[in-house]
Specification:
- By secondary structure, the chain is mainly alpha-helical.
- The chain has 11 helices and 3 strands; from the N terminus they run H-E-H-H-E-E-H-H-H-H-H-H-H-H.
- It has helices at about 1-5, 15-20, 30-45, 70-85, 90-100, 120-140, 150-160, 165-175, 180-195, 205-215, 225-250; strands at about 10-15, 50-55, 60-65.
- It has a 3-stranded antiparallel beta sheet with strand order 1-3-2.
- Strand 2 and strand 3 form a beta hairpin.
- The protein is elongated.
- The N and C termini lie far apart (about 95 Å).
Length: about 250
């Protein structure tokens, strides 16, 4: 059924279905078993006039209205969103992307254990990630950081190694006066990459962490001092200078 759905309204050969089910080691009765399984799928669909599996020579076609397949609806909404973005309609584009992403429930083909379909799953996940990244950029460009914070938390659970999404979540939290939580998000990412992959985060994460801490990349010193802090430092330097003069005079007279 997964193979037929991925190519809805297009012919899928029996050979392709055999590869999907058994990969490289099909039994001698593979063709007959495919026919039997398609028969059971037909029985599950019943006498529906809008969804049926038709035979087309040595292939099968799942005939179904495209608006009933979430994947195809998602793809259509993303195409509309891209067009709206190019036409200078960011709010409409963001709404379309939200609608498309809300159609997802878990990973692509997560219950289908078929090596022949892994590439398809990767392609769908890449399309989902592109939609997420476009939506985040649209929301951030209109200063809607807090509106997408909850979604970002969900997405980093699905993409636990994606540094860009973690940085965006940290920025959104910081914009909402939740800097401590923002720093925790970045620290947890650093620990996870080191522990599970044995690598360090990229410079973008380090730069953001320094920025949230109020330090510069070159010196790790405070980038901005309050007036009170500056005055305190000035007093300390003045007192130190005076003390050094006294000590120098004492040494000279010793």
């Amino acid at each position: 059924m997964a193979a037929l759905l991925l190519d809805a309204n297009r012919a899928v050969s029996i050979e392709r279905l055999i590869d999907v089910v058994w990969d490289q080691q099909p039994p001698g009765t593979a063709r007959q078993q495919i026919q039997n399984r398609v028969g059971r799928l037909r029985a599950l669909l019943g006498d529906s006039s809008t969804e049926r599996i038709a035979r087309a020579g040595g292939s099968y076609v799942l005939e179904v209205s495209e608006d009933k397949i979430d994947g195809l609806r998602f793809r259509g909404l993303c195409a509309e969103a891209e067009q709206a973005r190019r036409q200078g309609q960011p709010e409409r584009a963001a709404n379309l992307l939200h609608r498309g992403l809300n159609l997802w429930h878990g990973a692509a083909l997560q219950d289908v254990d078929s090596p022949a379909l892994r590439g398809e799953a990767v392609r769908w996940e890449e399309a989902r990630l592109r939609a997420i990244e476009m939506l985040v950029e649209l929301e951030f460009s209109h200063q809607r950081h807090t509106a997408i914070t909850a979604d970002l938390r969900t997405w980093i659970q699905h993409y636990p190694y994606h540094e860009g999404l973690h940085c965006r979540l940290a920025e959104a939290l910081h914009a909402g006066s939740r800097t401590a939580e923002a720093l925790q998000v970045l620290q947890e990412l650093k620990v996870r990459l080191a522990r599970e992959l044995g690598i360090d985060v990229g410079p973008g994460v380090h730069d953001l962490q320094r920025r949230l801490l109020g330090t510069t990349a070159e010196t790790d010193e405070p980038a901005h001092l309050s007036r009170q802090a500056a005055e305190a430092i000035h007093r300390a330097l003045t007192e130190t200078t005076q003390a050094l003069k006294v000590l120098s005079s004492a040494i000279a007279n010793y």
